[in-house]
Design goal:
32% helix, eight-stranded mixed beta sheet, FAD/NAD(P)-binding domain, single chain, alpha+beta
Amino acid sequence: MITEPYDIVIVGGGLVGLSLALALGQSQSKTSQRLKVAVIEPYPMMSADQSANPSFDARSTALSYSTERIYRRLGIWDGVVSSAAAIRRIHVSDKGQWGATRLVASEQGMDCYGYVVPNEVLGRNLYRAFHQQRQVELVASLKVSSMVAQSGGYLLTLGDSSDIPSRQLSARLVVVTDGGRSNLAEQLGISYKVSDYHQHAVIANIGLSRSHEEIAYERFTGEGAMALLPLADYISPPGGENDVSDSTMGLAGKREFRSALVWTVPSRQAPGLLEISDADFLARLQKVFGHRAGRFIRVGERHTYPLQLKTASEQFRQGLVLLGNSAHTLHPVAGQGYNLALRDAMTLAECIRQTTTVEQVGSLEVLNHYFEMQRADQARTIMGSDGLLKLFGSKASWIRQARSLGLVSLNLLGLAKEQFTEVAMGVSGVAREWR
């Protein structure tokens, strides 16, 4: 089997992998250095119709202010923003306590703190931009069946769903961003530090009786945290008597107000929240959350998954980098996992852009420089997310009183509010470069 040489191979064509590929392609168009780059994705990748309307149940991702700036630079933001819901206010509360805080973006000199966007909209626009560029090659419908270190990088053997080897690639640098689907990191002997929260996240889209008014809610309870994030209004398929129309859509379906729910509960309670009726689920949610967002009138498909803080013991080696969930998995309530992964990817792309020879691409010098640039951002984001959950998870009375005082102080102290916002919305440290 002939070995095909590449400079960089990205394993995983998801949101992080495609974003990195676009950044590498753009940097090549601005420099004289030409790198041979490929993205390996085990599933077919096709550009979808931009006019497609995501379903009521479409999963979404909270994008920080820095992520917006990144996607503007990559040229996909105009296609994303029309389906995005802005977060202009944040309401943080602690159930059963008197303290609460309300953050307003305009009072801090920002248009908004970020956006909530359906994943399929992100994917569709990334796919379209990727298919329009010519700098990075796509290797679809094949997976990495083996990966072996060799002089100057790695040797990768690719196979189809039947694991029959069909191609062999060499790469000076392999970027693993497959979310752990292939367990490549474990195959290479990279271990993980895992902190189990003993909780599950229950996620679903919630129909509201009124507009969410672009407010994101963070609600801490005695049993777990919950987030309720604004979504763009859902327009159901046409055919009902309450169908709406406007100059851009013509006749459309009924307009519904929605928010995305992330509700963390003790693991033993999660199955029950999936099994009860929609009416019982909404009633239980309303009781825990309250009526600050109006009445909950509809719940979409419910899903659940276990929650862990998972970090790789080593994020890089000679010729190897881990990105995204392959490098670190965070609690979802703070909504910072994807934003951190994207900042990692952009920093890596910049370090590669600064290399002067192809031999440097996978060198320890370059990769160590990348990690040192991102170390503080990663530590701040991971510790901030984990610490927030542990602080609000304590049931000790004196800590609960301190929490209430702390939430009130956020309303009164400008510096405290600014620091909280920086951690919550991913505009701290290295991310300031993307503001």
